[in-house]
Amino acid sequence: MDVSSPDTDEPGSRVKRLRQATAAAHDQLDRRVMAGRPFADFKRYALFLQVQYRFHAVVDPLYRDGALGHLLPDLDGRRRLALIKQDLLDVAGLIPGDAPQGHPGTIDPTGGLGWLYVAEGSSLGAAILLKEARKLGLSEAHGARHLAGHPDGRGLHWRQFTSALDQVALTGDGERRVAAGATEAFRFVHRLVGDAFGD
Ligand code: HEM
User: Fold this and answer.
1) Residue 93 maps to a domain
2) Which of 140, 141, 121 is nearest to 130 (CA)?
3) In a domain, 1, yes or no
4) Domain that holds residue 142
5) CA of 29 to the centre of ligand 1 (A)
6) H or E stretch including 164?
7) pLDDT class for 199, splitting at 50, 70, 90?
8) Is ligand 1 within 6 A of the CB of residue 124?
9) Distance from residue 124's CA to the centre of ligand 1 (Å)
10) CATH number at residue 141
């Protein structure tokens, strides 16, 4: 075994590196979403839901991936696509049928770890978005199901995911591919937001 492989000697945890590598992309996306005023009315909220639906339609196969399911806790239970679909039906939004521009196609499992980091991390900010959705009269039981926190608590549910992600053993350029996956995911969501709310 090549013990001097640079990947294993990097300082800090994998999740910390992902957070640092994507912090700017996250802030830009956060601002871009809020500039779209997704909670101004049902019509704009439905546009936000279509963004979430298109994103989760891409990552859903990763949540159903058996190999990834062995590495990450309760992966199947973390799927949100069906909840988003129900939310769209609640607010009379259209369920997107066509593949969006820039669809990444099939994502390889290692890059998929980066996409799952972004999808799971987005449930942290959902706490803020749920508060806004409530002002529209929506809730975890109607129209904002996918923004609900896990019964164990968002923080604990997130930490269970991140500690497992940190434990995944990767070789060769595995670290680079996970980080590339996370960056691709943010870029893809940013594009969906631009398509939905207009650039
Ligand atoms: C629209 C407005 C958004 C707001 C207000 C928001 C807010 C937040 C907040 C407060 C956190 C927790 C930060 C921390 O505890 O350090 C967070 C984390 C995160 N958010 Fe967002 N977010 C938004 C949108 C998104 C979107 C659309 C995505 C991706 C699709 C996303 C992905 C993430 C990720 C991956 C993390 C975890 C970062 C980490 O701790 O490693 N966020 N967000």
Assistant:
1) yes
2) 140
3) no
4) 14-197
5) 9
6) helix 154-167
7) low
8) yes
9) 6
10) 1.20.910.10
